[in-house]
Design a protein that fits this description.
Length: 233
C-alpha cells in the first residue's frame, strides 16, 4: 500500500491526492471483487481551508464529512460548498441536534436511544426522515464512543420505533491497539448478523486515511478519508 506523504497542501496537491485515493480505492475494490459503485469516499474536511474543500468539490468530489456542528454550519453557509452532500461524523451534542438534522445525508454517531429520539423528534418537526448509522465500540476500547457490540441489536430495535430516523448501517472508529483487519472483520460480521433481522442495514462505514484499503477488503461501503486527501491537520 502506498500512503501519500501527508503535509499541508495547495490546491493542485489536493487534486493529485484525491485522484490517488480513488485509484487506491479502485485497486482495492478490484482485488476484493467489489464494485466502485458500492463504495463512497467521504472527504473529511474538518479544519481544512474552505478554498481547498471548494477545489475538491469542483473536481467532482460530492461527499464531505464534518465532525462539529459549528463547522458544519460554516460549510453550509459557504456558497461554493452548500450544494455538496454532507456527513456528520463526530459526536453529536443534544443541543446541536437542530443544526445538523435535515442538513446532512447521514449522522454517524448514534449510540444511545436518547440521542436517536432527539434526532427523530427534530426530523419530524422539519418533516424529514434522517438517515443515521449506529456507532459501535467494536474493539471495546474505553476511550472510544459507541454502543457495545452485544447491545447493538437492542438499541436498533428501540430506534426503529422512532419515525423520524432510518438506521441504515454501522460505523466504528477502531482502537489503535487492534489490527484494523480484525476490527473491520468484526464490524462486518456484526452487521451481517443484524441484517438477517433488519435488511435495511446495508452500510458499513469504516476505514480512514491509514487503513481504507483494509476496510474495503472487509466490505466497507463508506470510507472517511481526511489526511490522505487534504494533508496533515
Ligand atoms: C477525522 C476523522 C476521520 C478522518 O481521519 P483521517 O485519518 O484524516 O483520514 C474519520 N472519521 C472520524 C470519525 C474522524 O473524526
Amino acid at each position: 500500500m502506498i500512503t501519500p506523504q501527508v503535509s499541508p497542501t495547495d490546491g493542485q496537491e489536493t487534486l493529485d491526492r484525491l485522484a490517488l485515493v480513488y485509484q487506491h480505492v479502485q485497486t482495492a475494490a478490484e482485488q476484493a471483487g467489489r464494485r466502485m459503485a458500492d463504495i463512497t469516499v467521504v472527504a473529511v474536511s474538518k479544519g481544512v481551508d474552505a478554498a481547498l474543500v471548494g477545489t475538491a468539490r469542483l473536481a467532482g468530489q460530492l461527499d464531505f464529512g464534518e465532525a462539529r456542528a459549528r463547522d458544519l454550519k460554516a460549510r453550509l453557509d459557504h456558497p461554493a460548498l452548500a450544494r455538496s452532500r454532507w456527513h456528520f461524523i463526530g459526536q453529536l451534542q443534544r443541543n446541536d441536534v437542530p443544526k445538523v438534522v435535515g442538513n446532512v445525508a447521514v449522522i454517524y454517531s448514534v449510540d444511545n436511544p436518547e440521542l436517536g429520539r432527539a434526532i427523530s423528534d427534530e426530523a419530524l418537526r422539519k418533516d424529514r426522515l434522517q438517515r443515521c448509522f449506529i456507532q459501535v465500540n467494536i474493539d471495546r476500547d474505553p476511550a472510544k464512543a459507541g454502543v457495545e457490540p452485544d447491545k447493538a441489536a437492542d438499541l436498533i430495535a428501540r430506534l426503529r420505533t422512532y419515525d423520524g430516523i432510518s438506521i441504515q448501517g454501522l460505523t466504528t472508529v477502531g482502537s489503535k491497539q487492534v489490527d484494523p483487519h480484525e476490527t473491520y472483520g468484526r464490524l462486518r460480521d456484526l452487521r451481517d448478523d443484524l441484517r438477517a433481522r433488519w435488511p435495511e442495514l446495508i452500510h458499513l462505514s469504516m476505514g480512514m486515511s491509514n487503513d481504507y484499503e483494509t476496510a474495503i477488503a472487509n466490505g466497507a461501503t463508506v470510507l472517511r478519508v481526511g489526511r490522505a486527501i487534504f494533508g496533515e491537520r
